[in-house]
Amino acid sequence: MVRLLEDMAAADHPAEPVLVLANDAEAGGLKKAAGMGVQTAVVDHRPFKGDRPAFEQALQAELDKVRPDILCLAGFMRVLTEGFVAPWEGRMLNIHPSLLPKYKGLHTHARALEAGDAEHGCTVHLVTPALDDGPILGQAKVAIQADDTPDTLASRVLTMEHKLYPAVLRRFAEGDRTPVFL
């Protein structure tokens, strides 16, 4: 999220950040956003004790205050229901640490290593009600090295995430849905 904010700070960027919303008060993007004068909010999921619709209503209430055109998910590790996703469909992006459609869900780096893959990477996609299943807007690849661990691979993939997501968001905000490949 920090890289997206930094990129959007450029004078020629077609998107303007209006809110950084997190479910964890310690999320790094909150401090960066506040320092840039971008509104922040936190809706902690834990008090909702598995009541996803109530949690999502609280999220939506925060979004309603600023009425964004596009939602960009980054590090938001909560599954969203169809009731939340449907009104945002076509306007909500997510970055996922795998070359979708491979390795939806968690532990993607370990799964790529266990499978003996030659390459791994990240994907920016439109969010749909199905987990990690929306149309692909961009992908970036990294070669898997013989001595890779999940942590070393994750570090190289994160570097590519920081390049890919801003590039995709810039094009998306301009109305260009042509996938970006790095």
Quick summary:
Its EC number is 2.1.2.2. This protein is of the alpha/beta class and 182 residues long.
What's the structural blueprint in terms of helices and strands?
Blueprint: H1 2-8, E1 20-22, H2 28-35, E2 40-42, H3 52-66, E3 71-73, H4 82-85, E4 92-96, H5 108-114, E5 119-126, E6 136-143, H6 150-173, E7 180-181
Parallel strand pairs: 1-2, 3-4, 6-7
Antiparallel strand pairs: 4-5, 5-6
Helix pairs in contact: 1-6, 5-6
Task: Based on the model shown, name its key terms.
five-stranded mixed beta sheet, two-stranded parallel ribbon, Rossmann fold, 182 residues, alpha/beta
Mind explaining what this structure looks like?
The protein has 182 residues and is an alpha/beta fold. The chain has a single domain, classed as Formyl transferase, N-terminal domain (Rossmann fold). Helix content is 36%, strand content 18%. The protein is built from six helices and seven strands, in the order αβαβαβαβαββαβ. It is globular, with a radius of gyration of 16 Å.
